[in-house]
Each structure stands twice: as structure tokens, then as C-alpha cells.
Amino acid sequence: MAGGAVKLTISVPQSLLAIADEVAAEQKTSRSKVVSACLQELARKRLQSKMQAGYKALAKDNLKFAAVSLASAHDVISGPE
Length: 81
Fold this sequence. Notes:
Layout: H1 14-27, H2 31-78
Helix pairs in contact: 1-2
């Protein structure tokens, strides 16, 4: 784990604790590792969402640029009128 582990005290509903315990038992690991894995997955999804938003914004800009470029190319190819 980058930066080392830090102790954290949190409160969660009993139902979520039960799920964490089940997953920990299934994977033969600790609650801490289950919670860490969940947070890592959340971080990955957040990053993916930000990247998708960025790519969508770039796509809009690229379409605008392509339209302007196409119009300029048309003007060059067709010559002065």
C-alpha cells in the first residue's frame, strides 16, 4: 500500500459489517483489506468517470475543429470564387 497503512475508525450499518465479514471470510482476509479493496474500486470508477467526461469534452472540441478544417479545406480546394 502506497504510503503505508493508517488506522481509521469508522461507523457502518450492521448490514454492511455483515457483508464485509462474509467477504473477508470467503477471501480469507481481513475486514480492513475488504474495505480497502472497496475504496480502491471506488477510486478506479471515479477516475474512469472523469476520464470519460474528459474524452467526451475532447470529442466535442475535435468535431468543431474538424468542421472548421473541412470548411477551410473546401475553400482551398475550390479556390477563389
